[in-house]
Write a structure and sequence with these properties.
The complex is a heterodimer of chains A (about 350) and B (about 325).
Chain A: E1 4-17, E2 20-33, E3 37-41, H1 48-56, E4 63-72, E5 75-76, H2 82-88, E6 93-96, H3 100-103, H4 110-121, H5 126-139, H6 145-148, H7 158-170, E7 176-180, H8 188-205, E8 208-213, H9 216-222, E9 225-230, E10 233-239, H10 240-245, H11 250-257, H12 297-301, E11 307-308, E12 314-315, E13 324-325, H13 333-336
Parallel strand pairs in A: 3-8, 3-9, 6-7, 7-8
Antiparallel strand pairs in A: 1-2, 1-4, 4-5, 9-10, 10-12, 11-12, 11-13
Helix pairs in contact in A: 4-5, 5-7, 7-8
Chain B: H1 3-6, E1 15-30, E2 35-51, E3 55-59, H2 66-74, E4 81-86, E5 89-90, H3 96-105, E6 106-109, H4 123-134, H5 139-152, H6 169-181, E7 187-191, H7 199-216, E8 219-223, H8 227-233, E9 236-241, E10 244-250, H9 251-256, H10 261-269, H11 309-313, E11 319-322, E12 325-327
Parallel strand pairs in B: 3-8, 3-9, 6-7, 7-8
Antiparallel strand pairs in B: 1-2, 1-4, 4-5, 9-10, 10-12, 11-12
Helix pairs in contact in B: 4-5, 6-7
Classes of the chains: A alpha/beta (about 350), B alpha/beta (about 325).
């Protein structure tokens, strides 16, 4: 087994809003190993982006980690000061965002933005940083890198901008790369290029990748392991083969059945009825039960614990009661919600 | 309820809409005198037919002109050249007044339903407006008609007095659909109608559109960048690249036996939601060229894996290679 690079334990993230404190992430635990890609899948509002922002310490002003631990290579980072966090970000953890135009600074050249992390974290001269920047642009497959350094973000196409973002993120060889919907804003042919690039670089540099996406196709393409989230909670986790071959949670099955399959024209779409509940909606028992076709009486009152099978494939669903309850969650969570 | 079995093969049904060499150029003005310096060729000579009760998908990457094509058909953009024939009548040169009766027959569903609803107007009133504009029904009958509409698209009667912000994305798109079907049109253009929705909700809306199609014998022009959705929803597909039609055929032909290298690359680039048989992709390098300065010859030759010298000089003709399967490529 590879050692864990990132461990998140019982993370709870909440927001102060006009309607009181709302929990966006409810007791989520997972880990990312070196050289591994973990995909967090879910629909908008399920808390997947907030989970990643909690890890990198970029929550909006009104959000905070209420409880839980975030461990990077065994050391807790959730309580670090702003200054200490800043030394980690861009250095040991990097992030790629969905919209490269809003993530890049429009009034600074590509070269300036590429050199910045190197000058900040690596203590190199400007000349050395420029050489490194050209190397980075070559690495992410941008033609004429010397020319690009003097250009501004608006002069590049969407795919190019996302490559620049990746180059900036990789500048200091981070151990962990967080990618929040990195290809959602791009066309399929460009998306394929970017996914290949992330995969190649991951192998080359031995990074851990935490990828956030709503696209099941992207997941199948890049993930080693998959974690499915629904309404702030983790509902299923397993290897990509397990989750796609043998989905356990009705929500995961529903997600897989709502995506048309290109290779199988006979495939019949099955929509999940209803829509994602809001953060302030109180739902007793399992958060998914109002939309679940297998809901039993038990589901309406008792929140299921995490059941785990022999392959380490977990699901938070009473349908898998015959399996073992995952060790560290067997106490507390079940009784608390009765 | 499979896409391909729903409507009879195209040759047997009636042609509802025909496009003949439709072009749309946007002039680029510049300099001190704001003279026209060139044109963005958004839609370049497109000819096609839409049959009654079928869904024609239009796919392509962003900037390929698929939305402009839809808007031009409806008259939201002024046509540069070509003919639009709807129900055997040319409609491109009609005056505004004469056009009104065709407006009833052609409707559009937009991508962002929130942006297309007035945030200060109750949903019922927004829908009521359609009837006030186009019918002479008295107020109480109009209200009944609106309530019927809301029910038709799966919303509750209470929605009448609600504001758009009170609805979720999927529900808002249902309101958009209600508005589009209010006057019993024959033809609806769906411009990325489900792209902004989450997958579980997307499937619900697609099912609603299909149910309505069967009930009212509607024809759809379904514009989308999502080939999976198009394959599920449509009967025939038009593939566009840089304003040009590159391939058109039945869903089965396009997805099983694509002729044009661009279609092949597009299909192979889609991430498949299955872990069995991750396939080697056809890698396209580079980006789409600038439509203001399109490449010579075949518009795709700059990125095409099989391009030859002839592709740089000669523009390939639009040829019917098999029955109802057209492609524009020298090597198809």
């Amino acid at each position: 087994m590879q050692e864990a690079l990132l461990e998140v334990k019982n993370l709870v993230t909440s927001f102060r809003t006009a309607d009181g404190t709302l929990q966006a992430v409810k007791d989520v635990s997972f880990e990312v190993k070196k050289g591994e890609t973990l995909c967090i899948v879910g629909e908008s509002g399920c808390g997947k982006s907030i989970t990643s922002l909690s890890v990198i310490g970029l929550l909006p002003q009104n959000g905070s980690i209420e409880s839980g631990e975030v461990l990077l290579e065994g050391k807790p980072i959730q309580d670090l000061s702003h200054e200490e966090m800043r030394r980690l970000r861009g250095n040991r953890i990097s992030m790629i965002f969905q919209e490269p135009m809003t993530a890049l600074n429009p009034v600074l050249t590509i070269g300036y933005q590429l050199r910045e992390p190197l000058l900040l974290h690596r203590n190199v001269s400007k000349k050395e940083a420029t050489v490194k920047a050209i190397e980075l642009l070559k690495q992410v497959g941008i033609p004429y890198p010397e020319k690009r350094l003097k250009q501004y973000p608006h002069e590049l196409s969407g795919g190019m901008r996302q490559r620049v973002m990746i180059a900036i993120a990789l500048a200091c060889h981070p151990g962990l790369l967080i990618a929040d919907e990195p290809t959602t804003a791009l066309d399929v042919t460009i998306q394929a290029q970017i996914l290949d690039l992330i995969n190649d670089l991951k192998e080359e540099l031995g990074m851990g990748v935490l990828m956030i996406t709503h696209d099941m196709g992207v997941v199948a393409e890049v993930a080693d392991r998959v974690m499915v989230m629904y309404a702030g909670k983790k509902v299923e986790e397993g290897t990509v083969e397990e989750v796609f071959g043998n989905p356990k949670h009705p929500y995961t099955k529903g997600l897989l059945n709502s995506v048309p399959n290109i290779d199988d024209p006979e495939f019949e779409l099955e929509a999940i009825p209803g829509s994602m509940p809001g953060l302030n909606e109180e739902i007793s028992g399992c958060r998914f039960h109002p939309r679940c076709q297998f809901a039993m009486d038990k589901c309406k009152v008792l929140d299921p614990p995490e059941f785990i099978d022999r392959n380490g494939h977990t699901a938070k669903c009473w349908l898998h009661e015959d399996e073992e309850v995952k060790a560290d969650e067997s106490n507390g969570t079940v009784t608390a919600t009765v | 309820m499979k896409a391909m079995e729903q409507s009879p093969p195209p040759s047997e049904s009636k042609v509802l809409l025909e496009l003949n060499g439709v072009r749309k150029y946007f002039p680029i003005k510049g300099g001190v005198l704001k003279r026209v310096q060139g044109n963005v060729k958004a839609v370049e000579s497109i000819s096609l037919k839409v049959f009654e009760g079928e869904s024609l998908g239009v796919v392509g990457e962003s900037g390929c002109g698929k939305s402009t094509l839809g808007r031009t058909i409806l008259g939201l953009e002024e046509l540069t050249d070509g003919k639009i024939i709807f129900n055997d009548q040319e409609i491109q040169d009609l005056k505004k007044k004469e056009k009104k009766k065709f407006v009833k027959e052609m409707q559009m569903i937009f991508q962002d339903p929130y942006a297309s609803l007035n945030p200060r107007q109750r949903v019922g009133h927004a829908l009521d407006e359609v009837f006030r504009m186009h019918t002479k029904l008295p107020a109480d009958e109009r209200r009944m008609a609106v309530v019927d509409l809301l029910k038709e698209v799966g919303l509750k009667e209470e929605s009448y007095d609600r504001y758009p912000h009170e609805f979720s994305g999927g529900q808002r798109q249902r309101i958009g659909i209600a508005r589009a079907i209010a006057l019993n049109p024959q033809f609806i253009i769906c411009d990325e109608a489900v792209s902004a929705l989450d997958v579980s909700v997307q499937a619900q809306v697609l099912k609603l559109l299909k149910t309505l199609q069967r009930k009212y014998n509607l024809s759809y022009l379904f514009i989308s960048h999502d080939l999976g959705v198009v394959q599920y929803f449509c009967d025939r597909v038009l593939v566009m690249y840089l304003g040009n039609a590159v391939e058109m055929g039945t869903v089965k032909d396009i997805f099983k036996h694509p002729l044009h290298p661009y279609t092949q690359a597009l299909l192979s680039a889609i991430p498949r939601p299955s872990v069995h048989g991750r396939k080697e992709r056809i890698r396209l390098t580079g980006d789409m060229p600038n439509p203001a300065d399109p490449p010579s010859g075949c518009p795709f030759h700059t990125r095409c894996p099989i391009a030859q010298d002839v592709c740089v000089t000669d523009k390939p003709a639009w040829v019917e290679h098999r029955e109802n399967h057209f492609a524009a490529c020298h090597f198809a």
